[in-house]
Amino acid sequence: MDWPSTTQILDNAIQGVSQNVSFVTPVFSVMAASLVASAPDLTRNLNFAGNCEKYHKNNGLADTLRGKYSFPQRTGRHGSTYSKLTKLATNPEVDACNVIVGDLIHEQLGEKNPRAASRITSVVGELHDNVASHACGMGYSAVQTYSDPVARIVFAIADRGRGMLRNVQKVSPSIQTHSDAIKWCLYPGNTTAHNKSSWDQRLPEDYIINPHPTSVATSTCENHHMGLGLSKLAELVRDYGGSLWIFSGITHFFFWN
Known about the structure:
By secondary structure, the protein is α/β, with parallel strands linked by helices. 43% of the residues lie in helices and 17% in strands. The protein has helices at 3-14, 26-35, 41-44, 50-58, 61-65, 91-109, 114-135, 164-171, 178-186, 229-240, and strands spanning 19-21, 46-48, 82-87, 139-146, 152-159, 201-202, 218-219, 243-248, 251-256. A 3-stranded antiparallel beta sheet has the order 3-4-5.
């Protein structure tokens, strides 16, 4: 299932049109999971059948769509040939997801190309941290390996944050469209991370009262990222002949080799 089919099915389901889902990919899983909280009609209009029904239960999508998400336990081939749908809500979850996905990438690529495995693992961790930073955990990650028609790894991440345009405008107000915001984020060296001061005081995720004076800058979404994830991801796609799809606001960007 490619991304145009995914967006069409999810759009129709949100509009109340019953949809038969014949194949679940990481792209479908993360997009459906990120949409369900704001689209209660989505779940009842998605019909999974056959092997697809079994897979969406096994990878955690079924529970997530029913509002019963729980952080996946590492069993079977989870972390070897695929990673279950994982919510990036807290920093411990981000760290745990980084380990699982990193192990998968190194198992699949480590012997053949250890440098590629290390580079990809680093960028995936950066993207996970981006969700914790910019979307405050309102996002999901999933990975799946395939062998037909060619061997490949499909990684997908989606969130319901403020979007690239609003984040980019904090450091570059001249950017006015979603398309230009995506291009800005893909340009090497551009980052919104510089907008955050290293002197910001970290508040706990469950804080109720801010103990610091109003003059003290604070942050509630801790992260370790440098803000260069997308440009590094595009670089990997070019270097290893992959493909990349980015959707933000009302605009999508698709690149392949």
